[in-house]
Amino acid sequence: MSSREDEALALAAVDALTGQLALAPKPGLPDPRDLGARATRKDHSSLRWSARALAPGLAAMAAAARRTGEPSPQLRAELGAIGRCTEHSVGLAGGGHRGALWTLGLLVAAAALDPGARSEDVATAAKKIAAHSDKRAPRRPSRGSSVSAKYGAAGARGEARAGFPHVRRALDALARSRQAGADETEARLDALLTVMSTLQDTELLYTAGPLGLRHVQAGARGVLEAGGTTTDAGRAALLALDADLYTRAWSPRGSAGLLAGALFVDALPVKADPRAA
């Protein structure tokens, strides 16, 4: 049974996901403009609604972590079982968010293991959980794992087992942009572009192949090299990239899920460092 602390972590994760969804313009990704003329992409309101369906499952994952008390094979198996049930619930609510559920589920469980941990410690705990295999997982390979095997990409599983390096990169980008005077939307968009610039996004590899992936990565780097979203040149490059990906129907969904993970970790309270006293 979940506690108030578990439910608070789950709500923080849902807030991070809906915060990511609220950003615009996001190149190739659903955003609030999809409520109008651009509604040919997956409906934004449906994604916001189904994001809320993640909350019970995420709370259950936090509760499992608190009960288990360590990043053990038992916890990994419990998270897998809860995740599959949650995917079914989210599907009934409109679908989407499979990649974000994997990322947020591991990070929520890691945060529950050590309340108030620093961001690097949360990522390390998530890495330890992901290192275990889920023996109850379906034998049939997922699209993401098939693409990972075909192109040698890390994929969602590899990202987690490496300690979420792109979540860390996004957190660093958020800090840099805020320190440079960017507003919160600009900082979050710069963090998204930072992830897009290097991530081997299996969704893009599936739809666009290696050349398409490199095209998207180069476009994201171009925005950042033009000064990011706070500059006129960077903003123009962002809008051009968004129009390009929208026309091609290429969607860097893996980057969006990792940004949501970074926003969740960024919002966690951090316990005081005793060495600072």
Approximate shape: globular
Q: Spell out the helices and strands N to C.
A: HHHHHHHHHHHHH
**How much helix is in the residues?**
55-70%
Mean pLDDT: 88
Fraction in beta strands: under 5%
| Main sheet record | none
Unreliable stretches: 35-42, 272-277
Number of helices, where a helix is a run of at least 4 consecutive DSSP H or I residues: 13
Number of strands: 0
Broad structural category: mainly alpha
C-alpha Rg, in Å?
18 Å
- End-to-end gap: 37 Å
What's a concise summary of this model?
The protein is mostly helical. It contains 13 helices and no strands.
Question: SSE layout and pairings?
Answer:
Elements: H1 4-22, H2 44-52, H3 55-68, H4 73-92, H5 98-113, H6 119-130, H7 143-151, H8 155-161, H9 165-179, H10 184-196, H11 202-225, H12 232-248, H13 253-267
Helix pairs in contact: 1-2, 1-3, 1-5, 1-13, 3-4, 3-5, 5-6, 5-13, 7-11, 9-10, 9-13, 10-11, 10-13, 11-12
Entry keywords:
277 residues, mainly alpha, 0% strand
Written overview of the protein:
- This protein is 69% helix and 0% strand.
- The protein is an all-alpha fold and 277 residues long.
- It has helices spanning 4-22, 44-52, 55-68, 73-92, 98-113, 119-130, 143-151, 155-161, 165-179, 184-196, 202-225, 232-248, 253-267.
- The chain has 13 helices and no strands.
- Residues 35-42 and 272-277 have low confidence and may be disordered.
